[in-house]
Amino acid sequence: MGKVNTVLGPIATEDLGITAMHEHVGFGLPGCDLDTQWWKKPEEAFDVTVQKLRRFREHGGKTFVDCTGIGNGRDVEYFQVLSRKTGVNIIAVTGFVAGDSALPYFRNKPVEYLTDLFIHEITVGIDGTSAKAGAIKVGVSRGGKLSELDKRIYRAAARAALQTGVPIITHLCVDAESAIAIFDEEGLPLDRVLMGHADDGGYLDEDRDTMIAELGGWVGFDTIGYDSEMEGSPYWSRPRQDRVEHFLRFLDKGFVDRALISADANCCALGWPGLKGHSVNYLFEEFLPDLRKAGVGEEVFEQLLVHNPAKILTMQKPRSFVKTVVLTQKA
Length: 331
Description:
Elements: E1 3-6, E2 9-12, E3 18-23, H1 42-58, E4 61-66, H2 76-86, E5 89-91, E6 93-95, H3 111-123, E7 135-139, H4 148-164, E8 168-171, H5 176-185, E9 193-195, H6 206-214, E10 218-221, H7 240-252, E11 259-261, H8 282-293, H9 298-313
Parallel strand pairs: 3-4, 4-5, 6-7, 7-8, 8-9, 9-10, 10-11
Antiparallel strand pairs: 1-2
Helix pairs in contact: 3-4, 4-5
């Protein structure tokens, strides 16, 4: 029997149930807590969040993976309260959404320091609590290429993933070749990596997605609900039907066992307005009905929301990383 770390302690893989793989209780950039334009009273934020999580539970949802990295509004004690209040399993992550959103304190830290930090939050606890991370978040800085800091974070994440058995979840699939090269150098199998936001309207590349799946990686269609038809839609939005058709093409290639879906929604956004009407529940209330209309069967939904999340989230047996050493001969 496998296990997964949640903020209330480890649970058996079988208890994950329907899982949203890339969500946020509340995400914001460092300093968002000082913003007055979008600030909400704590009671208001709590009530809104509880309502959305309870609605998720009504739809059959059991597990909510919060992909908020260090410095972006992650609050595991708050997550614990929410989990007890709603009955939803909440999985927290260690790591960073991207190097350019990391707090300055971390920007010059070596790979070894970052590795130890991630391992500590997975095996000991986050922010002085007993809540342990169940996955590692990494990402690509602005510009579409891994920065030098991004590469250090990815390498540290690979080492920590090997030594603790938790998976890696990426923010964006861009520059996938560079990321895959790092994971390969560190000896991390790609089936321990979810390459996220393949459906992001600004970074579409179906050949890239096919490559990731064929190499055994997971491809995340996890910005579902950011529809350009919605008022105030952000720059990464795209037409609703385009997203549906994109996802159907991926399934038609035989990759249902390599796909993961989520909404990347905020229960209560921090430092920005969020997208009105968008929440994790868009999956059940809009996206799955769209797929049903296209003829997708219920067994596929079970694969996407239960079996695939269980496979990647289940902690593997820890092992030491093996670093590839390239020897060069002097002329």
